[in-house]
Amino acid sequence: MRVLVATHKEPKLAKLRELLAPLGWQLEPIGNYAGLLPNPDAPGEDLTERVPVVATHLAKLSGLPTLLDESCFEYTRAGQRVFFSLQFGPGDSEEERRAKLLQKLRGLPPQERMTRFMTVLTLAYPQGKTETYVGETQGVLLHKPKGEGGVGYDTLFFVLEAGKTLAEMSPAERERFSPWERAVRRLLGHHIIDHLHPTVELPPQGSSATLELAPGAARPSSRPSPMRLLVATNNPGKYRELREGLAPLGWELASLLDYTFKMPPEEGATFEDNAMLKAAFACRQTGLLTLADDSGLEVDALEGEPGVYSARFGGRKSDLERNIYLLERLKGVPADKRTARFVAVLAVAHPQGFMQLFRGVTEGLILEAPRGENGFGYDPLFFVPEAGKTFAEMSMEEKARHSHRGKALAELIEAYKDGFRIPEASSSE
Ligand SMILES: O=c1[nH]c(=O)c2ncn([C@@H]3O[C@H](COP(=O)(O)OP(=O)(O)OP(=O)(O)O)[C@@H](O)[C@H]3O)c2[nH]1
Ligand SMILES: [Mg+2]
Questions:
Q1: Mean pLDDT over residues 115-119, rounded?
Q2: What's the rounded Cα separation, in Å, for the pair 44 and 41?
């Protein structure tokens, strides 16, 4: 797809091309759009309303899908939400912009300097359809600059999650906290999923499905390995279990530590969606056969929560905090109502253009206090009646025999054990 990008900044275009490379879009700049934008300094303007309107205008003029982003600070002044747009005329130097911002903030009490640094990114189609992605970072605007790095307002913006200003971060760190990058990654995650939906058939438990990954990809041929498999997870506990489980295949494994790209946000509604998104993304980045695991805990008394949100349950940051939160949520729920299951979906994306899925489920109970030292995540709270133990009381081999991941891995090994054979790609023709 050809997409116009409303920017005249070469570094921004280059960065977009790098981040969106897995989508295979052809990104072209439109330099001369500034005159079409409404007055950027108009007060109280909500970018989530304005950016889609302007992007649609540009898409209609050009007849091509068009990407436009704008950023702003949003804060509260006298109880009102105020937007401070970061779009300026070409004449403003960074110095002048900072002065403008400081002037706007003069006299604001510290609690009103709490800010959302927000980027709104819209992809507009000439027919009028729009998609809008928002990236945001919470912070405090300082009275005085702090730090040396970065550009623009980076010296004034203190990121709460990081405990420093953007200007005090390394370039890699700054990327992680940049609302612009966050918005772009949301778009990427969404489109990778979009791309997969039309052809995927969700398989019955333990079977495999085929789908087309890249339009025009070579038709798969059946041929044996040499196998190199990228295990695309950032979770060390999972990685260990996957490595052990895959050992019988004798394949050479690569990990995400071997690469510098970042995985997109997991915005799918199901484990299947997220596993495919992760596998497809990493496969397209590396060209390697890629395995991703999406898994989680479904608690009946919580109507299936945390489910696909298991890694960010209650916004808690560590395994320990998530376990404490789970116990809080289940306070007063009697033992016989504490039923739950762990689900794992493994997706294997083949660079030739299709994907296979394997699913495993283990039923259990959530205890009222942790038991055992092994494993990771919710393991100390997950009791498996058939074994009479929690996952955390099991050795790795024992857990593999009983666990959701172990069961999905067994299906995968079964599918690949007699050498690597690619099924007929029926959906690509
Ligand atoms: O006690 C546990 N024993 C398990 O066997 C297990 N499997 C998954 N989980 C939890 O479920 C979430 C998955 O989220 P998830 O699939 O997005 O993985 P993740 O974000 O940790 O890594 P990645 O693979 O996405 O990089 C994470 O919070 C995991 O702690 C488990 N917890
Ligand atoms: Mg994850």
A1: 87
A2: 9
Matching fold, domains 2-192 and 203-428? yes
pLDDT at 330: 97
Average confidence (pLDDT) over 358-373: 95
Residues composing the chain: 429
pLDDT at 34 (0 to 100): 58
Q: Percentage helix, strand, coil, to 5, in the chain?
A: 40, 25, 35
Give the other-Cβ count within 10 Å of 319's Cβ: 17
Average pLDDT over residues 272-279: 90
Q: Of all atoms in ligand 1, which is nearest to the CA of residue 405?
A: 5
Mutate to test the pocket of ligand 1, among 185, 231, 235 (most ligand atoms within 8 A of CB): 235
Q: How far is the CA of 313 from the centre of ligand 2 (A)?
A: 12
341 CA to centre of ligand 2 in angstroms: 18
pLDDT per position as a tens digit, 165-217: 989 998 878 887 888 888 888 888 777 765 554 333 434 433 444 444 444 43
CATH topology (fold) of 2-192: Maf protein (3.90.950)
pLDDT digits (tens, 9 = 90+) for 292-301: 999 999 999 9
Ligand 1 pocket at CB < 6 A: 233-235, 238, 266, 293-296, 310-311, 342, 375-379, 382, 391, 403, 405
Cα 30 to Cα 161: distance, rounded to the nearest angstrom: 35
CATH of domain 203-428: 3.90.950.10
- The residue annotated as part of the active site, out of 69, 154, 293, 294, is 294
Q: What is the pTM assigned to this prediction?
A: 0.64
Atom of ligand 1 nearest to the CA of 379: 1
29 is in an annotated binding site: no
What's the CA-to-centroid distance between 374 and ligand 2, angstroms? 20
Question: How confident is the model over 167-177, as pLDDT tens digits?
Answer: 999 887 888 78
| Contact criterion met (CB below 8 Å) for 325 and 314 | yes
User: Does 405 show up as a binding residue in the annotation?
Assistant: yes
Q: Where do we find the tokens 């970018």?
A: 47
44 contact partners, CB below 8 Å, separation of at least 6: 80, 81, 82, 83
Q: Is 404 annotated as a binding residue?
A: yes
Give me the residue spans of the domains in the chain.
2-192, 203-428
Q: Atom 27, ligand 1: which residue's CA is nearest?
A: 311
Active site residue 294: yes
Instruction: Please tell me the distance from the alpha carbon of residue 104 to that of residue 112, in angstroms, as a whole number.
Output: 12
